[in-house]
Amino acid sequence: MCAALVRPCGADTLPRLSCCFCLCSQAEGSWSKERCCAVQRNVCSSGYSYCLDRTSSSDYLYRLSPGEPERYETIPGGNTAYQYVYPTAWPLFGLNDLTIGYNNGPPGTNGYCDQGTTYRGSPNAACGGDIGTWGHTDLEVWRLL
């Protein structure tokens, strides 16, 4: 899954200028709640209708731009909430390490990244913006057939 988002570059730039961040993630596990729940070590919640993928330790986040591409691997001994699978929500990686969006809006609606709990990196390293600052976001999802 890859997302391109546009946000203001900073206080020292003109308001009409913006930066484009291109960030991606690799999900080893399924985005199907039923398939996720079928894996023995995963946690399935019927009350909140999600599956917590605790087995996909080879998942990672990466940023393509701006700057040099950077890959953010899982943290050895860190939180093992690699991926939350919500059938009606945007992907959520880690314990809020990368959230594509909340509240059933378009991609980027309240999206943010707060790396450092499950995936390496510092807060906002992959996406460059905190909650509510993403602006227009394009999302692509690729899968093997």
Name its key features:
31% strand, 145 residues, six-stranded antiparallel beta sheet, 11 strands, five-stranded antiparallel beta sheet, globular, mainly beta
Short description:
The protein has one helix at residues 33-37; strands spanning 2-8, 18-26, 43-45, 50-53, 60-65, 70-72, 83-85, 92-93, 98-99, 112-113, 137-140. The chain has one domain.
Question: How would you sum up this structure, described in words?
Answer:
The protein is mainly β. The protein has one domain. It contains 1 helix and 11 strands, in the order E-E-H-E-E-E-E-E-E-E-E-E. The chain has one helix spanning about 35; strands spanning about 1-10, 20-25, 45, 50-55, 60-65, 70, 85, 90-95, 100, 110-115, 135-140. The radius of gyration is 15 Å and the shape is globular. It starts with a strand and ends in a 5-residue tail after the last strand.
